[in-house]
Amino acid sequence: MPSPALKLIVTHAGRAALVSPDHGGTMKVAVTSIGVTATAFTPDPKQTALPGEIKRLTTFTGGATAADTLHVTIRDLSTDSYSVRGIGLYLEDGTLFAVFCQAAVLVEKSTQAGMLIAADTIFADIAASSIVFGDTNFQLNLATTDTPGLVRLATDQETITGNDARIAVTPKGLLAALNDRLGSAAPSVFAKKLIAAAKDVDVRALLGLKSAALKDEGHGNGLDADLLDGKEGAFYLSARTRYIPGQIIVYAGNAAPSGTLLCNGTAVSRANYADLFSAIGTIYGKGDGVTTFNVPKFAAGTTVVAADSAETVGVTVSGAVMAHSHSGSIANGGVHAHGGSTGGAGAHGHSASSSAVGDHAHSAWTDQQGWHGHTGGTSWGGDHTHPQDGRTTYPGYGTNRIGYQGASQSWMQYDGGTTGVAGGHNHSFSTDGNGTHGHNVGIGGAGAHAHDITVGGVGDHAHTVTINQGGDHSHGLTINSTGGAVNLAAGVSMLFCIAY
After folding, report:
1. pLDDT tens-digit map of 299-312
2. Residue 431: what pLDDT?
3. Is 107 helix (H, G, I), strand (E, B) or coil?
4. CATH 3.90.1340 region(s) of the chain?
């Protein structure tokens, strides 16, 4: 049952404040403070003050919730300590608008706690909407799962949707949600029995489940209904039932799946992989020859090829490319020639100089001619004489001397004349040999110098280039081989695994 509302008595001064200035109707009034008192008194419309008033509070809020009902919430967070039996509502001009009081204490305020009064107040003969609250300075906390406070009530549709944690469900909304999920008037009588069943055996009895369904079910409990061909369900989930030992599996993951080994040539235990050893033996390697054997090895890029006999199983083949040849040619260009010319460079000349090599000389020699002499003769001169008029004066000896007289130191004197006739004759002569010899030739040095070289310009010109015809011809073509040592198929790399 809801708490009874507080019935406020409006004072005469409060009613007068409701009358409009022209007395043609009423107007709204604003409550700006609420006084509290611990004194018990009988409310009287003639009151103008609150008996024994302790203090006036301005921390409150409120509003009309019905035509004659006003919801008021009052808060005091001070450290004051007092009891509340009565309250009075004051207007902005200090007029005592309405009062309430009861003999019992309405609320106790202690120094350690705040006070919060939330109550509905009823006006017997005035509209609650005529009263408004002035500038209140607090709002109540919104209710959460941890904090008490105000909460909005959910509509039926909000309750059915059920996605807002800030609103409260009403009984009417809850019924709407149940009907939406279970059907109108649900649950049925039968469903209520199932819900009320305290034990699983009672539920099975209500559902009519008998015989095997009433036994303890599950793997390993020996229930025939759980078996398929005498095997529990877990048996059919193992790799041993999906594959046979020795079966090759192409797997798109990056690790061998359960029940298989990666085909990488590894040596594995004959005891631990007895079924696989029984299937393939030592075809792919005998391991250590006693306790291990090898699984197949697929090199990167290789694949499985068909064996046409038992003898070729496990044999690695390099593969072969189908026999073929390559041909090629270079198109015949026909009889043709190529012409061209160099660009004109304009009238120009070229200059150059030799490098200076310092003061120097050049040496040379003649070829050796061996031991030799030279012979010859004078020309024939006929009969002739030679005049001797050739006197010469020698200092200290006078003139016309002809010879030196030895120790006497005298000179012969001649007086001129001619030689006798000798007749026509000639003279022969020879030179002496000088042995095998050569002649040195020396060239004098000219001092450190360089030589200028000037090339004369030949005017603006170009040079014609002629390429001779090669005749109708073709060119040989060589095609080099490429590729690796083995044939590999193109494709996507995946794991080759073998079941054990």
Report:
1. 888 888 888 888 88
2. 65
3. strand
4. 239-306
